[in-house]
């Protein structure tokens, strides 16, 4: 089986709200895949259906070869889930917490090894309550990977992190990806998606409005560049030529020269503002 996840025609309605309006999706094994989209777009609904925690109205879904609408214990043990809310086994130490949860899995990883993998070895005997927010999040990830999952879901994993903690967390995820796990994350941080994801899907209004590699999403790689300098700016598909001409005009150094290509955020903001219905 090449794909870890296959989705065809997924829909979900809550009362009057059509939260998911027909999503098709393939996520390959070993891939890091990110869902992007504004608040209320349908990301959590989609992910919770894939995790087997929410019923769908219609559509065909396979997650690791199983329909998540009929989850089995064995299937659940192959999936790791890191939710938005931090765990609160606060009075236990990190090691006690990890050991406790290891008891729920048929073939758990070694607790010490998992604690080392998330960079908490020197905090193993500290109470979870005494850890910083970022460190607690690492405990969440430790619990998410404890069962040796083939597929890991991470919901907004770095919300509230300082920039350094975020970078460290990215390294942790990259390390997990290198071990061959499939990783599905939701995030509101475009730089995070760019740093981590092999592919992203932008969900807006219950549909996937764009899907692809961060570098090429929405025609990003072929979009025109904007050359700006102290006295003007021009949009062009041949910025090097423009700069050569400017350099001649100024007889050398061009004052205030900058070349701007669309960032993932520029593309994302355009994608989600386009009319959809
Ligand atoms: N349990 C529920 N009952 C009723 N409506 C819901 C429920 N859960 C979600 N919705 C609605 O479905 C739509 C999609 O919500 P969802 O949580 O999937 O969005 P999201 O993309 O995950 O948003 P966020 O970025 O804020 O987490 C929203 O309009 C939301 O109000």
Summarize the structure in words.
The chain is α/β, with parallel strands linked by helices and 277 residues long. It folds into three domains: 156 residues, P-loop containing nucleotide triphosphate hydrolases (Rossmann fold, 3-Layer(aba) Sandwich); 56 residues; 38 residues, no CATH class. Helices cover 31% and strands 27% of the residues. The chain is built from nine helices and twelve strands. The strands form three sheets. It has a six-stranded mixed β-sheet, with helices on both faces. A hairpin with a 2-residue loop joins strand 10 and strand 11. Helix 3 crosses helix 4. The longest helix is centred in the middle third of the chain and has 16 residues. The radius of gyration is 22 Å and the shape is globular. The model has no long low-confidence stretch (mean pLDDT 91). Adenosine-5'-triphosphate (ATP) binds next to strand 2 and helix 1.
